[in-house]
Amino acid sequence: VQLQASGGGMAQAGGSLRLSCAASGSIFSINAMGWYRQAPEKERELVATITGGGSTNYADSVKGRFTISRDNAKRTVYLQMNSLKPEDTAYYYCNADQIKYCSGSGCPLIKTLNDYWGQGTQVTVSS
Questions:
Q1: β 121-126/9-12 pair status
Q2: Is the pLDDT of residue 103 over 90?
Q3: Cα angle 25-69-102, degrees, rounded to a multiple of 5
Q4: Each residue's pLDDT tens digit, 19-70
Q5: Are residues 115 and 97 in contact, defined by beta-carbon separation less than 8 angstroms?
Q6: What span, in angstroms and rounded, lies between the C-alpha atoms of 113 and 48?
């Protein structure tokens, strides 16, 4: 099982970027997914989460600017980031709070991964 993030890069203040995180592997189901970020010398912080049913939660700092969404068929979560600010500069990580996946040919066993992290993607916003 892998969570592959993409879409990071550089943007100017006021600009936009869209992050994607695709889950791959013999996945049976994914519960809530989310984005977190970590700036240099700072703690990792929540950006946004979305449940399997589509309920969302945002950090106050990104409300009204960022939108999280997911495509369950594609097992992908997105983060549309608008009106970017220099303080949004950070490494953005994708997270799934629970992934159930098939183990073995023919899926004889379903295993669970909790609090599963993908590799991050860098977002840099210049003023």
A1: parallel
A2: no
A3: 20
A4: 999 999 999 899 999 999 999 999 999 999 999 999 999 999 999 999 999 9
A5: yes
A6: 20
Q: Which two tokens stand for residue 114?
A: 């909790």
Report the C-alpha gap between 18 and 32 in whole angstroms.
19
Name the pLDDT band for 104 (thresholds 50, 70, 90).
confident
Q: For the chain, how far is it from start to end, CA to CA, in angstroms?
A: 38
The label of the residue with tokens 């592959």 reads 4
Query: Whose CA is closest to 80, among 110, 108, 50?
Result: 50
What token pair was written down for 87?
Answer: 């303080």
Structural contact between residues 59 and 49, judged by C-beta atoms closer than 8 angstroms: no
The tokens for 7 are: 């879409």
Confidence of residue 105 (pLDDT cuts 50, 70, 90): confident
Torsion of CA 73, 91, 36, 27, to 10 degrees: 30
The SS3 of residue 87 is helix
Amino acid type, 76: T
